[in-house]
Every structure is written in C-alpha cells, then in structure tokens.
Amino acid sequence: MLMMKNVFCRIDLSSFITGTTEHTWQPTTSAETNLPSYWLNWRFFVCAIFIVTSLFLSSFLVWRYEGLIKRKAGDQREPIGVVYDDETWNTCVARIHPNWLLGFRVFGFVVLLGLISGNAMADGASIFIFYTQWTFILVTIYFGLGALVSIHRFKSGENCLNGISTDDEELGSYGPPLNGNVFKSSNGQGRHVRSTREVASTLGYIHQILFQTCAGAVLLTDGVFWFIIYPFLTSKDFSLDFFIVVMHSVNAVFLLGETFLNSQRFPLFRISYFVEWTGVFVLFQWIVHACVSFWWPYPFLDLSSPYAPLLYAAVGLMHLPCFGIFVLIVKLKYICLSKCFSEEPYSNS
C-alpha cells in the first residue's frame, strides 16, 4: 500500500508540473487512416515519390562522400568525409582543456536523460509518436556517446597528444588539438605544420553523424514548433507546460554549447543523414497509421488534405535552411576563433 501511495504521489506531482491533459494539444482524426481508400489515391503516391526520391538521393550522397573514399593518384586533397580521432573528443581552442568538454557532455547527458524520462512518466509512452521526442532522444544518445568517447580518451592517459604528431621547425614538438594544419604567428604569416593524424574509428564516425543529424533536426523541431505550430494554436486548443517548453528549447541550448566547445567539422553532404532521419520518421508514421486509425501527431502529415503534397514538400524544403543555419553557426564560430585566438591553431570546418 505504501508503494502504491508513493506512485500516486509521483503522478500527482508530474500532473502539477505538466498540467492536465485537458490543456494539452490533442489533434482530431480527420479520416479513418487504416482504410485502403485513404492510401490508394494520387496524394499518397505523390508524397511517396517525394519521400522515396529524397531517401535515394541522400543515400547516394552518403555512398559518394562518406569516409575515406578512394582518391586518384597524385591527389593530395583531404576527403571531405574523413573524421579524425581527435575531433571527437577535443576542444576548438588549445587553452580550453578537453576535460571541460567531457564534463559538459556528462552533464548534458544526465539532464537530457532525466527530462525525457520525466516526460515519459508524466505523459505516457504516447509522446514517442512525436518527432520532437524522437529528436530529443537522438540528442540524448549523442551526448551519451560523446561522453563515452571523451571518457575513453581521459582514461587512456594520453591526454591531447594521442593521434596527433606534429613537427614544426619553429615550435619544436607540439600537439595541436584542432583540425587546422596552419599556425598563425604574431606577424600574421602562417607557419605550415606537417601533421599525421589518426583516423577515427567507426564509433567516431557515428558520433560525427549523430552530431550533424541532431543539428538539423533540433532546428527543425524547435523552429516548426515556435514559429509555425504554436502561433496558430489558440489557448483553447493548447497550452504550454513545463515539458513542452523544455522539449523544444533545452536540446538546442545543449547542442549549441557542444558546438561552441568541440572541434568537429560540418561538411554539407551530411545533410543526407538529417533527411534520412526525417524520412524514417515519416515511413514509421505511415506504417503505424495504415495499421491503426488514430490522429496524426502533426497536421501537415495528414494525407486526406488536398494540399498534402504541398505541405510535405514545404516541410522537406525546410531541411535546407535548418541545416544551413547550423553550417553558418559553425563557420562563424571558427571565424571568431581565428580572430580572437590568432596565435593558436584553429579548425576549418
């Protein structure tokens, strides 16, 4: 009986924090989604062609550029898909110790895991039908994996020098923690450094892929919610509560903090993973709604609307500015670092 009482107390507390279900958004079902007539029409086929084409093009870009692709003889250019081991655990500025990034990742993982767990306990497993929760879980996994990578480097006892061997005629032996292979001296002239860097493991590549997928997905979820969904919903349909706010804000805050600290690059072709992540979510929604008739988590996913193809295309095209904004953030970060820390090595994404 005491255990049951404690459970009910926790339920009451979560209800107090998140509000009652009467004040949360519950979309209505516009049509029976598990009937053949819902799917066998031109709207679905147009949307299906759009989704399948996007997934095919994304897969092609991954196949074409990911990893260490074969280069022609004499081509000394660095493959755009390469990921170096030090990029997964090191910071973007030499004077910031990698342990600060380790601590931030551990803290971020604990907070994010606690928030998504609390959201699930408060509102039930039905929250995982939303793209927001999918993305929040992905960000949590990224921080957990990043923490493991940083902890592994910390336990190895090799500090920042492992995986980087640099020979500089003026500085002697030095271990730069960043991607760049050029030091800026006080007179503004670059001193080229010959470096040999260890390529990241499969886990390192997964870590990099998660980083860029999370970047686009977080901007998409938070942007769509705050600038499209929320402004057009009245207080009668929807009211903000604790978990709705944090699910659409905290993930972006932690990801931006991670971006400002880490030394990871941001090649454009990895927008493919972002597109594939959204494509998998849409396919999941289609399969579930074809089997069971219930409301769509987002109105623009409803295939009964004559504007469904336009809505799908509009949301699909939003991937470009969402990913592009984060590319701009990363580039501005390195531009600022190159000016503020002109005598330290800095990374070029």
From TrEMBL:
Signal peptide: none annotated. The chain crosses the membrane at residues 42-63, 102-122, 128-149, 209-230, 242-261, 273-298, 310-330. Keywords: Membrane, Transmembrane, Transmembrane helix. It comes from the Eukaryota. This is Transmembrane protein. It comes from Eruca vesicaria subsp. sativa (Garden rocket).
